[in-house]
Amino acid sequence: MLEISNLTHTYGSGPSAHHALGGIDLKVAEGELVCIVGPSGCGKSTLLRSIAGLLRPSGGEVLLNGVRIEQTPDNLAVVFQDYSRSLFPWMSVADNVALPLRRKGMDKKQRREAAVEALSEVGLEKAAGKFPWQLSGGMQQRVSIARALAYRPALMLMDEPFGSVDAQTREDLEDLTLRVRSMHNMTILLITHDIDESVYVGDRVVVLSKSPAGIVGDLRVDLPGPRDQITTREHPDFVHLRGEVGRLVRGVPGPPDSAAGGAAPRSAPETATPGADTTGPDTDVPTPDADTTGPGTDDTDTTTSDADGTDTTTSDADTPASGADTTGPDGEAPEPGAGDPEPETDTIEPGADTPKPGADKDRGVPGDTGPAPRPERIHMSDPQAPIWDAIGGISRFAALATMAELGCADELRDGPLSVDELALRCGANPSSLARVFRQLAAMGVVTTTTPGVYELTEAGAALRSDVPGSLRPAVRMITEDGFWYGMGKVPQTVRTGTSAFVERFGPLYGYLKGRPEAGALFDDYMTARAQPFATAVASRYDFSGVGTVVDVAGGKGHILASVLKSNPEVGGVLFDQEQVVGGAKEFFAEAGLEDRCKFVAGDFFASVPAGGDVYLLGSVLHNWSDDDCVRILGNVREAVADDGRVLLIEAVVPDEDVPHISKDVDMRMLALFGEGMERSGSQYAELLDKAGFRLNRQLELPGGFSIVEALPL
Ligand SMILES: Nc1ncnc2c1ncn2[C@@H]1O[C@H](COP(=O)(O)OP(=O)(O)OP(=O)(O)O)[C@@H](O)[C@H]1O
Ligand SMILES: C[S@@+](CC[C@H](N)C(=O)[O-])C[C@H]1O[C@@H](n2cnc3c(N)ncnc32)[C@H](O)[C@@H]1O
C-alpha cells in the first residue's frame, strides 16, 4: 500500500546544506497503524511531507497503492498538530468537515450526511452547527479527524496530532484514533514525540536516528487487545517495548536481546499485519479527494482567509490548512461577529509524569536509563486523583524552583554532570540535590545518562538563563516572597474579598517599583509567558495598511517587537511605566528594532499616546477592576482614530467547566490584585461597550490566549 524506497532529502546546498533524510526504506501494509518516533529535528516531518507530496525529496520514491507520489495525492488525508490553523473559523463544524467532499462530486445533502456521520463517529454530532472557535482544543482536533474520516482516505497521515492538547484529552484522542481505525480498517502513519503514545497506538513503531534520519528500529507491537489506557500501559510487554523504543531514540545501548542492544537496525517486516484493535470492515475504495492540502511544494506560503474574509498569508508552510482545500470562505457559512459566544480552548499543559520506578529493572534493564519520562497516570478511576495531583504539584514545583534558584540548568548547559559536581558548582548539599534531581528526572526536566549523572531535556533547557524566552524568571517569580505570600493567602483573600497581598504590600506595581530585582524578574516572566503567542499575534493578525501600533502597558514590548519584525512597514510606540520603559529600550536595541519604535513613559489612568492605528493591550485589563478597565479603555478611545482598532490579548475564560489557562491565571489575579480577573468574551464586550468600542471578533492564539478585536463605536 505505502512503499518508501531509499528516500533522501537535503535542504539547501553547499556548506549550509542539511541532510535531513539519509535513505529511508519503509513499507506500510493496508490497515496498519505505524508510528514514527525519533529525536527532535531528526526529519520526521520531512518524511511525512515527502509522503504527503508537500515536498519533493532529493532522491528515492514513495509509492501509494503502486502510484508514485509526485504531488499531494487525492486519496490521502493529513491531520496536523495545529488544529486552530487547520479549521476555517468562519465555517460551522459540519461545513468544515463537508468542504473537501465537494471534490468528490457529492451533492450538498450527501456532503451533509457524510459530515454528520463522521462527526458522530468522533462523538461530536451535537457540535455540527457550532463554529470551531466555540469548541475546546481537543474537540477541534476531533473535528479535524472527522474531516479526514469523512472522505475515507486510503492513507491518513498524522503529524503530532495530539501535541497541542492536555494529557487527558490526548488519551481520549489516542483511543478515538484506535476506534476509528478499527471501524474503517484505516491505514495510518502517525508521527509523535511521545514514546508511550507510539507503543500505545501503534501496530509497529519505527524509530528514526538523528539527522540524516535513517531507520534504527522497527518494532512490532503485539499487545493484547482491546487496548485501554490503564491496563495496556501496565502490561509488562508495553513497559518493555517503551524501554526499547526509548533507548533506540536516545541511541543508548540496551541489553543484548533488545532491539536497542543489537548493532544492526531492524528492518521493516515484509508483510505487516494490522494490530489487534483492528476489527472493522474493509476500507472503502479510495476515491479522488483528499484532505488537506496545503501548498504543493515545500517552503511556500499558505494562503488562507481570515475570519473577516480577507486573505492573510502565513509563512509557516509546515502547517497548511489540513483536511480542507485552501479555497476561500464558504458562502453558506455565517460569519462570527460581535456577541457570539467566546471560544473555549484546552489548557496546553506540559504533562507532568513519572516513569514507573523499577519497571525496567524487572526486565533486567538499568532502570535509570529508561524511556522518556512521562507523567505517571494517576488511576483515572480513583476519585481522589485530582486532589492528589494538585498536592503533588507543589512537590514537583519545589524541585523545579530549586533547580531555577540554584542555576542548575546553566551548569548543565554543556552536557551531563554528576550530582556531586553539580552540587559543587551550584553551592548545594549533594545528597539533598540528588533527591531533587530524582524528582526532576521523573518530571522529564532532566534525564539520566548513567546513574547519578544528569543532562537537560528539551524542557529543562528552557530553564537556562541564556536561551531566548528563558523560563527561569517565570519559575523564580512564583517563589518571590510577595508572590508566594499572596498565593498562600488566597483563602484569606476569598474570605475578606480583599487581596491579602495588597493589604500587606500595597498594589503589585508599586511593590515591584520599590523592588527593582523583583520588577526585572516580573518583566522577564511576562516576556517568557507571552513567548508562545507573541509571534502568532504578528503572523495571524493582518497588520497590512497599519502605520503605527501603540503597545499600551507593553512591558518589555515583546509582542510589539514581534509585530515589527514581521511587518517592516509598521512603526511602534511602547508605552509603560517609567521604570519598565528602560528595560524595553534595551530589549528593542538587542533586537535591532530601536529605530522603529518610540518609548513613552506614563500612566494609562491619565492618558495614552495618541496617533496610533492599532492599540495593543496585552494582559493589561486582567489586572484591573471593571471600573479601572473602563477608565483605561476610555483613555484609549480618546487616543485612537475613529477608523482605528484595539486588540486585547487575554486568556478569555470559556463558559464550560473545562481546564483552561485563564483559570490558572485568574487565581493569580485573585491573589495579587484582588479586583483584577480573567473575563469571558461577553464580559469584555460589556467593558468595551462602556468605553465606546464594540467587540468585533475574537481570534485564538496558541497557549489558550486570544486576540479580542474592538472597533470604535
Ligand atoms: N525548509 C527547511 N529548510 C532547511 N532546513 C530544514 C527545513 N525544514 C526542516 N529543516 C531541517 O531539517 C531537519 C529535520 O526537520 P524536521 O522538521 O523534518 O524534523 P522533525 O523530526 O519533524 O523535528 P521535530 O521533532 O522537532 O518536530 C531539522 O534539522 C530542520 O532544521
Ligand atoms: C501584566 S503586564 C503585561 C505586559 C505586556 N503587555 C504583556 O503582554 O506581557 C502589565 C503591564 O502594565 C504596566 N502598568 C501597570 N500600571 C500601569 C500604569 N498605571 N500605566 C501604564 N502602565 C502600567 C506594568 O508596568 C506592566 O508592564
TrEMBL record:
Alphabetized SMART domains for the sequence: AAA (SM00382)
Superkingdom of the source species: Bacteria
Domain ABC transporter: 2-235
The keyword Transferase is annotated on this UniProt entry: yes
Keyword Transport part of the UniProt annotation: yes
Annotated keywords: ATP-binding, DNA-binding, Methyltransferase, Nucleotide-binding, S-adenosyl-L-methionine, Transferase, Transport
Transmembrane segments: none
Any one biological process term the GO annotation gives: methylation
UniProt xrefs under CDD domains: ABC_NrtD_SsuB_transporters, AdoMet_MTases, HTH_ARSR
Ranges of compositional bias, category Low complexity: 257-340
Segments of this protein annotated with the region Disordered: 248-382
GO molecular function terms listed in the Swiss-Prot or TrEMBL record: ATP binding; ATP hydrolysis activity; DNA binding; O-methyltransferase activity; protein dimerization activity
Pfam family, one: Dimerisation
PANTHER family cross-referenced by the UniProt entry: ALIPHATIC SULFONATES IMPORT ATP-BINDING PROTEIN SSUB (PTHR42788:SF13), TAURINE IMPORT ATP-BINDING PROTEIN-RELATED (PTHR42788)
Annotated protein name in UniProt: ABC-type nitrate/sulfonate/bicarbonate transport system ATPase subunit
Organismal lineage: Bacteria, Bacillati, Actinomycetota, Actinomycetes, Streptosporangiales
